[in-house]
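Handoff note, outgoing to incoming analyst
You'll be picking up this chain. Sequence as last confirmed:
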Amino acid sequence: MKRVLWLIPAILFLGITAQAQEIPSWELSGGYSYLRAVLNGSSFGLNGGNGTVTQNLNGWFGGRLSADAYQGTVSRKSISMQTIAYGPVFAYRRSQRVTPFVVFQLGAVHGTAGYPGLSESAFKFMLVGGVGADFNINQRAAIRVEGQYVMTTFNNVRQDNFNASAGLVIRFGHK
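Most recent structure output, in case you need it:
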């Protein structure tokens, strides 16, 4: 009977350490991104791609660097916009199938000449807040779906934009 009582805490302890070993040290992702931009009262859509690098410091907290590039046509003008941002990511790793997360980032946005309201290329401040989920394929790969609020400040006026993205995640290492 005493052996059985010792066996229960041992199994629980080994289960906790096994779960900790499944946390990846690094995640690389890339995919399609759509930006619904709002500027001077008008809105327009831009298509593009995104890439992220995430370093997981533990099972629930990490740092994420993201870069996006968009292109589109507004009022018969070809425009593009690029972003780069960094900030914390908080993940909830309780399921083998889905890993939801929240991200908050600060960074810079670049709009090319011809971007509505811009007569020349400009770099401006950007703030990003979003939620998403990784739908795990296996321990090394997942499909990421994410939605983000993106605040930009072109022409010293705040713009409230929305970004939706989907892509593939590749994981490396173990924590």
